[in-house]
2-oxoglutarate ferredoxin oxidoreductase subunit delta (uncultured Acidobacteriota bacterium), 89 residues
Amino acid sequence: MSVEPTVHTPSRAVRRPRGRVFLLTERCKGCRFCVEFCPRHVLAMSDRFNSKGYHVPAVIAEELCTDCKMCELLCPEFAIYVVRLEEER
Ligand code: SF4
Ligand code: SF4
């Protein structure tokens, strides 16, 4: 009785989307929504203030951004937006 060799088909790598995050700090009012609700912890409150005296966030781990746009949707001041990056080849 012959035994068929097991064929291992290579799994296709799953690419996740990536985004570039832009903060318009002069529009920001420091509500922290973008920091609290980013599922990937891309943002954190910085130690900086804008010219109106609002404590502003900063991008601390952009490489983790998946372009989900949660921050963009939640920001009441339209002070943050995300642009999808082209996939690396
Ligand atoms: S797009 Fe999504 S993952 Fe990227 S910074 Fe905004 S909330 Fe976080
Ligand atoms: S959600 Fe908008 S207004 Fe609130 S901290 Fe983030 S960028 Fe600033």
Notes: The longest helix spans residues 33-37. Strands lie at 19-23, 43-49, 55-59, 80-84.
